[in-house]
Design goal:
The protein is α+β, with helices and mostly antiparallel strands. It has a single domain (9-97), classed as GMP Synthetase, Chain A, domain 3, CATH 3.30.300.130. It is built from three helices and three strands; from the N terminus they run αββαβα. Strands 1-2-3 form a three-stranded mixed beta sheet, with helices on one face. The longest helix is centred in the middle third of the chain and has 12 residues, at 58-69. 16% of the residues are buried.
């Protein structure tokens, strides 16, 4: 009998919180760069954005999301879709954290 290794949304979020934007030094979950998480069988689909269209760390962040989420038990595939709709806008709390307000 196989053990049920269902991955929860919370487990995915906890791993995402370990990935930091190299320029802002804030994790990509707190930044609000993750728009959607879908977990289906052995596959996780992520829809995310970057802080700007020309974000130099974009490809690195996508690779880190894929690499970290593939460490979850039973996950074989991690699809990351990058979108700029809607464009990223930091919340007021985030602006305060970054010293923009």
């Amino acid at each position: 009998m196989e053990e049920d290794q269902t991955i929860s949304r919370e487990q995915v979020i906890e791993l995402i919180k370990t990935i930091y934007d190299p320029e802002l030094f804030i994790d990509i979950w707190t930044l609000g760069l993750i728009y959607h998480i879908e977990i289906e069988d052995n596959k996780i689909s992520i829809k995310m954005t970057f802080t700007s269209v020309a974000c130099p760390a974009g490809p690195e962040l996508v690779g880190e999301v894929q690499d970290k989420l593939k460490t979850l038990p039973g996950i074989d595939t991690v699809d990351v879709e990058v979108t700029f709709e809607p464009p990223w806008e930091p919340s007021e709390d985030l602006q305060a954290m970054m010293g923009i307000l």
